[in-house]
Amino acid sequence: MQRAYLFPGQGFQYVGMGKSLYDSSATARNYFEEANELLGYRITEFMFYGPEEKLFETQIVQNAIYLVSLISAFKEGKKFQPSMVAGHSLGETTALVANGCLTFEDGLLLMNERAVEMERAFNAAPAGMVAVIGLDDIIVERVCEEIEDIIVPANYNCPGQLVIAGSKAGIDKACIALIKAGARRLIPLNVGGAVHSPLMSPVVKFLRKKLSTITFQEPRCPIYPNVTGGATTDLEEIKECLTMQQIEALRWTTTIQNMMLDGATEFVDCGPPHVISGMVRRISRQILINSAVE
Predict the structure, then answer these.
(1) pTM higher than 0.85, yes or no?
(2) Would you name the residues annotated as active-site residues?
(3) CATH 3.90.10.10 assigned to 126-188
(4) How do the pLDDT tens digits run along the chain, 294 residues long?
């Protein structure tokens, strides 16, 4: 059996996340407590008890999602034997820990430091992301191309759902044009800025320096990076893709299609139900999906 493990990105945070894992698994508790020590504060307090607004801070939420999704997979112990991995946006870093490229510690500290740089980029200029529902990709792409302000296709999540990202002016103009083009729904995303767009260029500069200081190990199985959607075990390609995903589009539909072509027979969703799984089912109804989250 070829098991593909999928790790989520930002957007599913809630007060109480991870608490059932902590309470029911000694392995999970050990990882959570190690994270508290590495970060220098008890992130578990914010995750388990709030306040809710704390979980919308970039550092807190990205670290929390990394921990919950990774520990959900690791608690399987010897049963955790992925044949291939992929992560949606920030989940790509989680996937690299899952396939052995990064240690738990290096992955968490990278997530934490990158979040600081992302927050700086967010604060530099008003920007945002909007999910466009019910239009073909080519129509959304054409709308973005015709707008002079910064606005780009950012997340190719599944057929009929493409997220755009850009400056506030670009978002505003694109939304008007997309409604005229027949978009069924436009859903603003609760993120601080325009991830996977040119506005995140400062984070690319940070990552080029940071990744050169981290030791990457040979992966135990292929990863399918967001930038290409194709399998790789090449460490230089892995680093480059992890860097460039900040400013390039996330190709999730291509990722899942390629995993299927490469023999995936079961997908394990390491996020909450109906987030990653929902997108995957829109790509193919034939996929067997199980959840690693209790």
Answers:
(1) yes
(2) 89, 196
(3) no
(4) 899 999 999 888 899 999 999 999 999 999 999 999 999 999 999 999 999 999 989 999 999 999 999 999 998 887 899 999 999 999 999 999 999 999 999 999 999 999 999 999 999 999 999 999 999 999 999 999 999 999 999 999 999 999 999 999 999 999 999 999 999 999 999 888 999 999 999 999 999 999 999 999 999 999 999 999 999 999 999 999 999 999 999 999 999 999 999 999 999 999 876 788 889 999 988 788 888 875
Tell whether domain 3-123+198-291 is in CATH 3.40.366.10: yes
**HEC per residue, the chain:** CCEEEEECCCCCCCCCCCHHHHHHCHHHHHHHHHHHHHHCCCHHHHHHHCCHHHHHCHHHHHHHHHHHHHHHHHCCHHHCCCCEEEECCCHHHHHHHHCCCCCHHHHHHHHHHHHHHHHHHHHHCCEEEEEEECCCHHHHHHHHHCCCCCEEEEEEEECCEEEEEEEHHHHHHHHHHHHHHCCCEEEECCCCCCCCCHHHHHHHHHHHHHHCCCCCCCCCCCECCCCCCCCECCHHHHHHHHHHCCCCCEEHHHHHHHHHHCCCCEEEECCCCCCHHHHHHHHCCCCCEEECCC
